[in-house]
Each structure stands twice: as C-alpha cells, then as structure tokens.
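== Fold encoding ==
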Amino acid sequence: AFGLMSIIMGIMFQSPPVLYCLLVCFFFGTAYSIDVPLFRWKRNAFLAAMCIVIVRAITVQLTVFYHIQQYVLGRPVLFSRSLAFAILCMTLFVTVIALFKDIPDVDGDRDFGIQTITVTLGKKRVFWLCITILLIAYGSAVVIGASSSILLSKLVTVTGHCILASI
C-alpha cells in the first residue's frame, strides 16, 4: 500500500526524477526483500550491498539533485563537483551500513549458509574495516572543505568533519 501510494504521489508531483527515484527504490527494495525465485537479494552479501548502494548512494542523490535543480530552482541541470563528491561520500557511508548491518547477525548468517564478509573475515576485522572507510570519507570531506573559497564554509566543514571523525 505504501509503495503504491508513493508511486501515485510521484506521478502527482509531475517530476520525472522523483517518479524514477521511487520506481527504482521500489524495484530494489522489492528485489531485496521479496521471497520469490531470483529475488530475496538480502541473502547474497554482494547483491544486498549493491541494492543499498544503488538506491541510497546513486539513485537518491542523482534524482533529488535533478529534481531540486530543475523543478524547484528552475535551473538547468549541471552535474557539479559537489554532486560527484556527495555520491562518493554516500557510497562510502552506505558501504559501511551494508557491512555493519551484518556484524550482529554473523552467527545466524553462518548457520543459514549466508556468506557475508563478516562471516568470512570475522566481526572485529569488519568493524575496523568500516571504521577505516568512515575515516576515508571524513578525510575526503576535510580535503574538499579545505578547498572551499568561502572561509566560513571551510571552517565549518573542516572542523565539523574532524570532530565527527574523532568520535
């Protein structure tokens, strides 16, 4: 019901990027979860991670950016350096989400024959891999923030991401 309502709302918004986003999210969400042949992709670590990356890091970033530029601000859509950086950072963050989500389930995954990276490498190694990926994301944000021509943006971005990385 909620999936159908969101697609109807996407049509009502008269924004092709919003509708495309909703359709892609609906497809990958269904493929991830539905228990029918060739689907239930959450059983496969690679397919589960790809669903998360495609939806959260790529589709949502591109379509929301396109919608805001064209349908809210009325600007031509020019894919910017900041959009590319947002996609890169979100890819790193959702990769961490995809890895972290399997850490508590390692015993069940092992028992049911689901070969996640956590089953293969162990909880501790995957945890520290995730921390390393997060530090790369925050470090990238610090470098990009430091290259800003606006002093306040530079200070807030660099300081904020250094604080977040230290936590």
Observations:
- The chain has eight helices and no strands.
- The two ends are 40 Å apart (CA to CA).
- The CA atoms of residues 31 and 39 lie 5 Å apart.
